[in-house]
Amino acid sequence: MTPGVGFASACTAGELEALVREVLAEAHAMLRTGGAEAVVTRQLAAPAHKGDSPVLLTAARDLELEPVFASAAALVKHDAALPTDSPRSRAAAGVGSVAEAAALEVAGDGARLLLPRRLSARASCAVAVRTGNGTDELLEEW
Predict the structure, then answer these.
(1) How many CB atoms neighbour CB 49 within 10 A?
(2) Per DSSP, which regions of 17-130 are E strands?
(3) Potential cystine with 31: which of 24, 36, 46, 130 (Cβ 3.0-4.6 Å)?
């Protein structure tokens, strides 16, 4: 399971961390309800243009997740599959949702959105999971 984030420059690390924790809790509950076992989360996906953000690096550290950055070109290749079309995200990164596109890109081939973006005041977070052969069966992430 891979959370992806987008956030405004006014966002704090605490706000970003709280949103990711909330969204991951929702994703884990959703998987448990569907009968899936626990899925390990190791990475936090973000757009490359946020790669030097202290907010992101602090939130990732506090969440004990490795920050992984998706290039602008990698984000755009997922645009047609995104359920969200935010004018702010489109203006900043050329995609309907930075969080959704980053989550899909970093989750890898066969990924699908488990949760479309959720919002706080200054951040967004979505969760992608990798599936096997286009089915709903989750692949173990090691």
Answers:
(1) 15
(2) 43-47, 66-70, 111-119, 123-130
(3) 36
Structure tokens at 128: 């992608």
Q: Helix, strand, or coil here: 61?
A: helix
User: Among candidates 110, 140, 13, 120, which has minimal Cα distance to 67?
Assistant: 13
Q: How far apart are CA 15 and CA 18, in angstroms?
A: 5
Centroid of chain to Cα 6 = 8
- Reported as a single tens digit per residue, the pLDDT across 66-120 is 999 999 999 999 999 999 999 989 998 899 999 999 999 999 999 999 999 999 9
CA angle 24, 26, 28 (to 5 degrees): 70
Q: How far apart (Å, rounded) are the C-alpha atoms in residues 130 and 106? A: 10
Give the pTM: 0.90
Q: Which of 128, 46, 113 is nearest to 83 (CA)?
A: 113
- Lateral strand order in the sheet of 2-7: 66-70, 43-47, 2-7, 123-130, 111-119
